[in-house]
Amino acid sequence: CDSSGSRSSKTFKPKKNIPEGSHQYELLKHAEATLGSGNLRQAVMLPEGEDLNEWIAVNTVDFFNQINMLYGTITEFCTESSCPVMSAGPRYEYHWADGTNIKKPIKCSAPKYIDYLMTWVQDQLDDETLFPSKIGVPFPKNFMSVAKTILKRLFRVYAHIYHQHFDSVMRLQEEAHLNTSFKHFIFFVQEFNLIDRRELAPLQELIEKLGSKDR
């Protein structure tokens, strides 16, 4: 049994699929095509004539899938004993609360926190009232604030991977993949002002480095 093959194919949560033939699928294809051009700043811009909510929805689903896959490759290194708290370096620690089931933030291990977080995101993405997949179904009035909360939380998974597991990422030769995914994510949230600067502090130096290469 080839263990390396089974490890990388072990997905952490099921992938969220955008229905083929739908307008969102076309948007996703557009996003993938512009990404291929290598100009990420351009790739994140709202395509002409498109609805901003829909563009943010499609990309949020895509980032969820990417982070899911990236975290899935290192789950065996992110354990109760290796990561007893959810942190992004010594100065940043996250406690989990979703406002409904867990109202008071709880301190928990990184794998537990990320499991809560990804399950919570998946529930939001699967909610047709929040993320309508059918054409012409309007996005809710609070869509932007929901999307911002999702992206703010997904950022924490990148931050944890970079701070606590980058050596594993390097050993697996995933760093180019991680960096490209994160750079795309950062350019996207910067383009539409979706995450507060304070929230980005744990990876500030990396963000500046990625941005300066692209001036």
From TrEMBL:
Transmembrane segments: none annotated. Keywords: Kinase, Metal-binding, Transferase, Zinc. It comes from Grallaria varia (variegated antpitta). InterPro entries: MOB_kinase_act_fam, MOB_kinase_act_sf. This is MOB1A kinase. Zn(2+) binds at residues 78, 83, 160, 165. One of its GO terms (molecular function) is kinase activity. The lineage of its organism: Eukaryota, Metazoa, Chordata, Craniata, Vertebrata. SUPFAM superfamilies: Mob1/phocein (SSF101152). It comes from the Eukaryota. The gene is Mob1a. Pfam families: Mob1_phocein.
